[in-house]
Amino acid sequence: MLHRCHYRAPCTWLMLDFDTGGALQAVHWAGEEAAALPPLTGVWADKLDAYFSGSLKDFAYPPSSRGTVFQQKVWQAIAVIPYGQVASYGDLARLIGSAPRAVGQACGRNPLPIIIPCHRVVASQGLGGFSLGRQSDTLAIKRWLLQHEGVEL
User: Fold this and answer.
1) Is 62 a member of any domain?
2) Which value, to the nearest 10 degrees, does the dihedral of the CA atoms of residues 36, 38, 44, 47 take?
């Protein structure tokens, strides 16, 4: 059974899922309907507050193990992209011996956006995509996150 709560980030609402042991399982982008959920408290609220204030640069949290072997390989590569830097889909593809489109698809399945910073993966010529569930302004969120980290595209 999952416990779901909300966090109001400066750029969007987040819903976070935790397992019964308290381990973070997923971060979802949401609209204002997330406010009906209990608010996030504790260590994860503190970490997100610190990230959005600019004082936390690395969540130091492992990528999800709930994906395919390939997805996990991509998420591990994403996890080491430093705060304030970007890598292209092609860069990651070369690193892991794959194709840029496959890397993009694995990015879109990342269950822990922000925590495993898939927003730091961009196209070779510009912003690239950002697949975040139901929200329609996902590229604006990606742009906001990158600008928050000091990345100019």
Assistant:
1) no
2) 50
CA nearest 78: which of 57, 39, 106?
A: 106
What's the rounded Cα separation, in Å, for the pair 126 and 3? Answer: 37
Q: CB-side exposure of 150: number of CA atoms within 13 Å?
A: 9
Q: Which is catalytic among the residues 5, 11, 107, 118? A: 118
Nearest to 119 by CA among 135, 102, 136, 132: 132
Active site residue 118: yes
**Taking residues 75-89, what's their average pLDDT?**
97
- Domain region containing 47: 3-53
Quick one: 78 and 48 in the same domain? no
pLDDT in tens, 29-51: 888 888 899 999 999 999 999 99
Separation between Cα atoms, residue 73 and residue 75, nearest integer Å: 6
Listed residue (102, 62, 82, 27) closest to 92, CA to CA: 102
How far apart CA 139 and CA 105 sit, in angstroms, is 16
Q: Does the pLDDT value for residue 132 go beyond 60?
A: no
